[in-house]
Amino acid sequence: MQPLYRERISMKNPAHFCAVGFGSGLIPFMPGTFGSLAALPLLLAADLLNAWQFATVTTIICLAGIYICGKTAEDMQVHDHGSIVWDEVAGMFVTFLLIPISLPNLAVGFVIFRFYDILKPWPIGMVDKRLHGGIGIMLDDVLAGLMACLTLQLFNMNWPLSLPA
Fold this sequence. Notes:
Order of helices and strands: HHHHHHHH
Pathway: Phospholipid metabolism; phosphatidylglycerol biosynthesis; phosphatidylglycerol from CDP-diacylglycerol: step 2/2
Enzyme class: hydrolase
Function: Lipid phosphatase which dephosphorylates phosphatidylglycerophosphate (PGP) to phosphatidylglycerol (PG).
Pfam families: PgpA
Number of helices: 8
Transmembrane segments: 20-45, 51-69, 89-113, 133-155
Number of strands: 0
């Protein structure tokens, strides 16, 4: 028997399909981790973009996520249900702003992002608790992505994971 929330979403609805990370958020355990993993092929494809294009795509993903996540949460009648993972996809894109895409960077950035997303240190935890709707669902992961990006930048300054192009 499927949980009631699952009956309220449709994989034919583009907002729902994106919100659940193309289906990755429907995996019954660790949906946020699988949602973050779903971002990896997109990040590899985005490696073809220059820095401005990547920043533009990241901004679009984040802004669209406010609607996508808010609409899906409203339709599910559950705020920020675990299966909603578009925010993790956006957070992963934020993590790699101005970071060279390489397999080592992807691996380390993934771990750092998940660390911040799971532990939710200040101010991430505060935002997660106080904001609701699409903006609340998205903003804590965008902040986790920013913190992960800064951490990965510092990491690369001391232990470069990519050779300069």
